[in-house]
Amino acid sequence: MPKVVHHLFKSDEKHLEQIEESLLLSASDLAKEGSIEHIEIEDILNKAQVSRSTFYKIFNSADGLFKALGQKLTNEMVAYALSHSPEIPNPAIRVVIKTKQALLFAAKAPFLASLALKTEWPSSDPNHVMYKDIEKDFIEGKTQGYFSDMPPSIGTNMIIGCLRGAVKDLLESKQSDDYADKVVYQILISLGVDSKTAAALSKSSVSAFPVPPKGMASNIASLQNHTKTD
Question: Which CATH number fits domain 13-60: 1.10.1060, 1.20.1070, 1.10.10, 2.40.160?
C-alpha cells in the first residue's frame, strides 16, 4: 500500500489548493459507481493518499467536501452559462431556453446535477448571480407584458423552485422524453402566460448546455465518462 503523506508542514496556499483539488477529484471518482451518501472519509483518504489530519485541515466532513465540490461546480457552470447566453430580446423565450438547458443538462450529467443540488442550486439567495439573472428575465417579462404583475421575488422563486424540483425528479426516477416541455409549460402558466402561447413556447428545441471545457466540472465529467478496466 502506498505511503500516506502528511501535508501539514507544507502549509502554503498553493499547495493546499492542490491537495483540495486532489480530494475533490478522488471523491468524484469514487462516486461514479455509487451514491455519494455512501462514501466515507476513509475511502477518500485512501483514494487521494492524504492523511486524516490534512483532510480535516481543509474539510470538516465528507458531506462538507461534497458541498464544497457542488459549490465550485455551480459557480463554474453558471459563470460559463451566462457568458455564453445568446442575446434574445423576448424574456419569456429566455426563461424557456435556460430552464430546458438546465433540465437537459441534469439528465445528461446526473452526477454533476446531484452535486449542484447539495448546494441548494439553483440558489434562492437574492444576491446570487443566477438568482439575479432569473430575476432580470422575470422583471423584463413583466414590464413587456409577458408575465403577470407580481412581485419579482415571487416570480423569480416560482421559476427557481420549479426548476429545483424538476431536477430532483429527474435524478430520482426516469421521466418521459417530453418532461422538460411539461416543466417549462407549468412555469410559463404560473407566470401568467396564456395556455396556447405556453404550449407553443414549451416545445422549443433546445440542446443540453455543454460542460465547461476547463476547470473542475470538465475534470469530473472526464472521470464520469471513463470506464474502469481494473
Answer: 1.10.10
